[in-house]
Amino acid sequence: MILSAGPGLLFILPCVDDYSIVDLRTITYDIPPQEILTKDSITVTVDAVLYFRIWLPTIAVSNVHDYCQATQLLTSVTLRNILGTKSLSEILHDPRKIAYNMSCLVDEITKSWGVKIERVEIKDVRLPDSLQRSMAIEAEATREARSKIIAAEGDLKSSFGIKEAANILATEPISLQLRYMQNIALNAFEKNTLIQFQNLIEFD
């Protein structure tokens, strides 16, 4: 007969009774770094953390030899299997969803062991150095292309503005002469100079 007892004073008959101490607090386990081949054939190294606790001590002691080791090994294998079906983009952009699905899958199995999976967290995803360099070069090229596009759009808008201004000045000659005088006055003011005109400008 297997019985569970809470904290307090217990009486055990020598050579008859046997006991196991079960910690009901949350247990943290750092899953060793796993080298995983993704669906798009890229090798990544993934670090994860497992949080679990014992919710049925009698089942945990009687149904599995070492519930802690069994839970840890199962989580490591499940991590490799799930991430092997994901692309690198999915792993990088949605790690929380992957971790949640993995914790639900492991929890379904460990229920029969009296173990409750509280959560699984993916700590880090490390890429090969060559891939990191390639991604950095690609990102730099994308930024340069985007800046060139923005500059080209600015030049196009500026050319439209210059063309419109030229059309207005062409229809109003006095506007062109006033603009000319304004530029001269501005230049003289900035350089603190005096400009004299030998010929008079006639306004129509």
From TrEMBL:
Pfam families: Band_7 (PF01145). It comes from the Eukaryota. Belongs to the band 7/mec-2 family. One of its GO terms (cellular component) is cytoplasmic side of plasma membrane. This is Mechanosensory protein 2-like protein 2. Residues 2-139 form the Band domain. It comes from Sarcoptes scabiei (Itch mite).
